[in-house]
């Protein structure tokens, strides 16, 4: 089994219900959810003229390859109404692979660890709740240290 860490989030519809549905579908289609962060309401990143997001980090045990996890994520997002019309735009559901074990993957389809982790408080706050001592395999710095040093000042609030 491999550990995959996912960030789920959305800012349209019934955000709590959609996060619960995403958590259930991840557990069914990718692997058991071993740990889930609290929910965090976060200011939008990128295009700020949109509603606040609700985000949650999931730590999942999976037998799937990184590519298969990515495919399943696409299916889960589609099942929950994801429309990829606008980069950084409003969405019902977005699921990102933050880490896949200690793997470093850099392909056209997938970059792991997610390249923007250190720059996004909305990722780091829930991640630090469930895995503060996790060491980033590229930077060699813990998640707690990344959170303390992030330049991102957008509001992130545990709900």
Automatic annotation (TrEMBL):
Q: Which organism is it from?
A: Dinghuibacter silviterrae
Name of the protein this chain belongs to: 2-amino-4-hydroxy-6-hydroxymethyldihydropteridine pyrophosphokinase
Pathway per the UniProt entry: Cofactor biosynthesis; tetrahydrofolate biosynthesis; 2-amino-4-hydroxy-6-hydroxymethyl-7,8-dihydropteridine diphosphate from 7,8-dihydroneopterin triphosphate: step 4/4
Q: Species lineage, top-down?
A: Bacteria, Pseudomonadati, Bacteroidota, Chitinophagia, Chitinophagales
Q: Which InterPro entries match?
A: Hppk (IPR000550), Hppk_sf (IPR035907)
Q: Which residues cross the membrane?
A: none
What biological processes does GO assign it? folic acid biosynthetic process; tetrahydrofolate biosynthetic process
A Pfam family assignment? HPPK
Q: Which GO terms describe its molecular function?
A: 2-amino-4-hydroxy-6-hydroxymethyldihydropteridine diphosphokinase activity; ATP binding; kinase activity
Family annotation (SUPFAM superfamilies): 6-hydroxymethyl-7,8-dihydropterin pyrophosphokinase, HPPK
Family membership, please give it: Belongs to the HPPK family.
Residue ranges of every copy of the 7,8-dihydro-6-hydroxymethylpterin-pyrophosphokinase domain listed in the record: 87-98
């Amino acid at each position: 089994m491999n550990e995959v860490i996912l960030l789920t989030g959305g800012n349209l519809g019934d955000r709590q219900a959609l996060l619960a549905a995403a958590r259930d579908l991840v557990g069914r289609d990718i692997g058991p959810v071993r740990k889930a962060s609290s929910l965090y309401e976060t200011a939008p990143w990128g295009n700020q003229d949109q509603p606040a997001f609700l985000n949650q980090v999931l730590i999942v045990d999976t037998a799937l390859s990184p590519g298969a996890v990515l495919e399943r994520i696409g299916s889960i997002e589609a099942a929950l109404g994801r429309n990829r019309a606008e980069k950084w735009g409003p969405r019902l559901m977005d699921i990102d692979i933050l880490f896949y074990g200690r793997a470093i993957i850099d392909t056209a389809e997938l970059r792991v660890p997610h390249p923007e982790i250190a720059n996004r408080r909305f990722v780091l706050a829930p991640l630090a709740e469930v895995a503060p001592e996790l060491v980033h395999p590229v930077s060699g710095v813990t998640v707690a240290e990344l959170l303390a040093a992030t330049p991102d000042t957008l509001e992130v609030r545990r709900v």
